[in-house]
Design the sequence.
């Protein structure tokens, strides 16, 4: 009875002319419409903010990335012109260790620190940028075997974090700024803006992407890329004219992708186990870098070639040109890179990954007679995916480096490599949130 009376009261009240809100009576929009307008204005304001910040980040980080690119080109050219610089590698290692000691960063975590910072909301110190900049240039100048994109990620992350602090961003926005800086520097240095924009979001957590960073990362990446192009930075591209996608070619591509997944696991294990070995047996950083430098010199003299020093882009280019390679090249590059990075020299693992993938793909083409440029491209894309667990960025980087002719081959190979490489990865701070085999939440770190 009471409920009926209450219902009648509510009905009568709602139907009473005086019950109409003052806002509606005055001819103003209803409250829900006002809320919608306010929310849309808030989104517009937020979007404009991120667009402007992304442009600033692209210009600032892109400028530093350009300087780093020129410095790396100078180091690579000097090493090629003056081969005797190799014998100064132990001295370069001592300078690198001293440089890090000077900045009170004797336990440098590199890209793992960047990924951890995005997970936890920690700071990426600005000092990381000059540290990795100088150390990577010294490593390449004297013939250490390392890449450059890993350094770009660290430089971009530290400057992006600093820009976020300048604008007094909160913890969540600073995460976006770190990824934004990573995209900008990667794009300026490597010339792949699409892959750079996605990679920084995808590499952090496998199975989940930080889509809130999409617009800032895309804009910063393209701004940095455009700035680098205007400043004359050149990038390596290898256009591939792929054969028809038939059952036979698809099967050969699948076999190559499966083998590349195994090679990616091997590469990660060699890197991690070599680093663990040197940390366990040569704890003193000055002694470790001296031993590592001497080992690289001895190995270079033993193999009688400089193909395994530096980043190795010239070897990748030679594979595309000739379709031939020394059968053990991919294994030797693994060894050279593992020793270099384990012994306190600095750089990245991404270009060595491309090197290993290119030489292994070329070897596969030599054995099977399958199309060599396609095998090399598939090898590079598959290895990159296998060690970074970033299938979307891997596919985009294939498109930007090799063109769209081989699209079905790249897609098939990357899918297989992603699944079969398991939970191994270059970065131990990378989180595997969802299983690669089931729709199951697992939340574990990469091996």
Sequence:
């Amino acid at each position: 009875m009471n409920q009926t009376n209450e219902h009648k009261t509510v009905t009568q009240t709602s139907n009473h002319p005086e019950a109409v809100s003052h806002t509606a009576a005055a001819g103003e929009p209803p409250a829900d419409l006002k809320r919608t307008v306010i929310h849309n204005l808030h989104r517009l304001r937020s979007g404009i903010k991120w667009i402007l910040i992304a442009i600033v980040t692209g210009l600032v980080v892109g400028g530093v990335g350009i300087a780093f690119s020129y410095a790396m080109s100078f180091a690579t050219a000097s090493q090629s012109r003056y081969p005797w610089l190799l014998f100064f590698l132990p001295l370069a290692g001592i300078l690198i260790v001293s440089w890090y000691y000077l900045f009170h960063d004797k336990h440098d975590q590199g890209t793992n620190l960047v990924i951890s910072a995005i997970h936890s909301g920690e700071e990426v110190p600005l000092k990381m940028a000059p540290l990795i900049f100088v150390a990577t240039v010294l490593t390449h100048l004297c013939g250490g075997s390392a890449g450059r994109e890993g350094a770009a990620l660290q430089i971009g992350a530290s400057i992006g974090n600093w820009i976020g602090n300048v604008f007094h961003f909160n913890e969540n926005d600073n995460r976006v700024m770190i990824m934004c800086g990573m995209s900008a520097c990667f794009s300026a240095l490597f010339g792949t803006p699409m892959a750079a924009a996605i990679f920084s979001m995808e590499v952090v957590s496998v199975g989940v992407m930080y889509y809130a960073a999409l617009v800032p990362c895309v804009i910063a990446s393209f701004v940095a890329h455009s700035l680098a192009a205007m400043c004359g930075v050149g990038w390596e591209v290898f256009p591939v004219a792929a054969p028809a996608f038939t059952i036979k070619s698809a099967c050969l591509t699948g076999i190559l992708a499966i083998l590349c997944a195994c090679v990616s696991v091997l590469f990660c294990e060699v890197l991690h186990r070599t680093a663990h070995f040197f940390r366990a047996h040569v704890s003193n950083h000055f002694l470790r870098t001296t031993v590592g430098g001497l080992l690289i010199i001895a190995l270079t003299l033993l193999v009688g070639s400089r193909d395994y020093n530096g980043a190795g882009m010239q070897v990748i280019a030679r594979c595309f040109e000739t379709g031939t390679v020394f059968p053990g090249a991919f294994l030797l590059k693994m060894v050279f890179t593992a020793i270099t990075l384990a012994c306190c020299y600095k750089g990245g693992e991404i270009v060595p990954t491309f090197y290993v993938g290119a030489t292994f793909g070329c070897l596969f083409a030599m054995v099977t007679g399958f199309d060599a440029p396609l095998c090399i491209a598939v090898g590079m894309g598959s290895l990159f995916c296998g060690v970074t667990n970033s299938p979307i960025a891997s596919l985009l980087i294939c498109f930007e480096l090799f063109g769209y002719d081989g699209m079905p081959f790249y897609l098939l190979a990357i899918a297989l490599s992603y699944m079969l490489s398991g939970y191994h990865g270059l970065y131990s701070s990378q989180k595997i949130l969802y299983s690669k085999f089931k729709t199951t939440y697992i939340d574990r770190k990469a091996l």
Q: What stands out?
A: The longest strand covers residues 441-445.
